[in-house]
Amino acid sequence: MIIVNQIKCTLDQTCTKEVVAKKLGCSVGDIHSFQILKESIDARKEPIQFVYSVLVDVKNEKRFLTNKDVTSGEKPTYILPEVTFEATSRPIVVGFGPSGLFTSLLLAEAGYNPIVLERGSDVDQRILDVDQFWEQGILNPESNVQFGEGGAGTFSDGKLTTRIKDDRVIKVIDEFIEAGADESIRYEAHPHIGTDKLRDIVKNIRKKIIRLGGEVKFNTRFENLILNEGKITGVQTNQGSLDTDTVFLCLGHSAKDTIEKLVEQNVCAEPKSFAIGVRVEHNQQFIDKNQYGEFYNHPRLRTAEYHLTHTASNERGVYSFCMCPGGFVIPSSSIEKTLVINGMSEHARNQENANSAILVQVPIKDFYKGSVLDGFNYQEAIEKKAYELGGGNYNAPIQLIKDYLADQVSTDFLDVKPSYCLGTTFADLSTLFSTEINTALKEAFIAFNRRIPGFSDGGGLMTGVETRSSSPVRLTRNDKGHSTTIENLYPCGEGAGYAGGIMSSAVDGIRIAEKYMTK
Length: 519
Known about the structure:
By secondary structure, this protein is an alpha+beta fold.
């Protein structure tokens, strides 16, 4: 087979066998079949084009290898490693977010019959708990946007974009499609699932794990390891104890209480830099017009996204994160009387506003006072301040970007109305942050306004506060995947400090499961 790159189509064309044949300079009859590997949109200049890379099965393929944009290739696949380790007990997986889903799936496929412990509820009950919070402001600390089946990603845009180059990505995509995702996530340049579809997908993966011999225990909070002379013999939960000699720690980035208990049991952890900031909102049509110009409402063009970065004069990096086109800003607290927000969009991405986190790097020196938990304490202090600034009732503090830059509290909205469902309160968001963070954030907004005119000097809103973009700790592990202090304890995923998003967390879960299977 061959891979053909740079196949360009107009907005009114689709990538067909005829288009591929024209690119190769062969007849349609010479092409047995083809598969789209990647689809992207080139909107840098008019006319806007779709650009494709395709895998082609064609007669006499060698004659095309000297053509421009043609290379030899095969269909990318993931092969489960050969199992070489026979377990003496059922491994336990703590946490059922992306890393926990795929760790337990791999273990189940290999015949290890894992037991999964998830402190939150199954996705159906979790939806009810989250709706109660969003509608009435009643928070369930164990079942919310952060905790429960599917992890924090279940209430998100379901973005599958990743910069990592790893065959395990293919496994993740295959499983998502088998569980109900659209086939297009294989080739879209910025694939996403949408929170409405992701809820059923994680449920279907759970059902597959159970069919393969796994077991999932919801509302079961891991409390500590049971150790004998430094070796794992079981785990203690709020529902009782379980025997095992192997534990996979697939924690989310908000599991402060769990990490605190692990550190008390000599699990080695170290502080890690992270980022905090705000959610910004603009009219989606404004973003679409900036990206696509006069073609912004063409039916084939997807809802536009942006990716912005800036390095401030104080060397702080500032960047957009988890951009949710056509979505909502959502309440995401997991601790009572604190305020955390995030972004979410459904598969259709058809809401009025676009939103994105704009985050500033927080180096270790900003928060470290001697305890590995200092990063969590730093986050929580800002979350408490945001709760109070909003009025002490889960209202979110909000400010026009242009007023933040002018050091004045906003008094009215312009063309952008907030999507946050629990109400907002005009406030001075600069009081949430240090001088260093405010300096970097203000410089970035000025720079972003040059990239997207109107981004910062129009009706754009900033809502506080976003603090849970990544874990502030790393649970150290060796090249075998074990904790550096406790054998057969496998930290992985976002909460352990080894990933940042759905795809990288899932891939890390697969990677660590492989280490166990082949040790």
